[in-house]
Design goal:
Elements lengths: L15 H4 L7 H7 L1 H5 L4 H10 L4 E5 L3 H6 L25 E5 L4 H13 L5 E5 H6 L20 E3 L6 H16 L5 H5 L4
Parallel strand pairs: 1-2, 2-3, 3-4
Helix pairs in contact: 4-8
The structure holds iron/sulfur cluster.
Amino acid sequence: MNERPKRLRDYGLNTERLLWPTKGPSVFENELGDLESTLGLTTVEKAVAWAQGNSIWPDTFGLACCAIEMMSIVSARYDIARFGAEVFRSSPRQADLLIVSGRVAHKMSAPLRQIYDQMLEPKWVIAMGACASSGGMFDNYTVLQGVDKIVAVDVHVPGCPPRPEALIEGIVRLQEKIKAGVPPAYDIRGVAS
Ligand code: SF4
């Protein structure tokens, strides 16, 4: 006949839970289980990703009609500062998000790539509008058929032009990616392009 396995109380541990198996966890045990969320325990990686996601510094690269919609997101009506993107300027200095808005003529490809190269890593790119994403209606020899031919794009915002709300949604989606620890697109591709 099989002997039943020894229980802890057989070793002399006579706690209330062991003597009363159907009793649920005590308040103290519940509090211990919730300790991580109660104290806000985290890892350095998660904390850095949270800070990066909430402090995006855009470098604007306005090229055509989409740029007008992009500019308006700093206005009182849209107020991109609410999402941590307070510093909104046309400079790669300290910027970590390149917003390409408008069609990219081949002539502008080299300056755009130069600005991208001047940004420090980690860095992200949003292609705003049909033209930046795919050349849009300008299927001709002068326009680059998608900025992802020269830089790695993290988020494409569709539309012609996308409304400012759409660009804000693109930025929020990017924040979600950053906070979730998704590497920048150039990392996924395995090359800094
Ligand atoms: S997507 Fe439309 S609005 Fe934007 S740059 Fe192209 S043509 Fe202009």
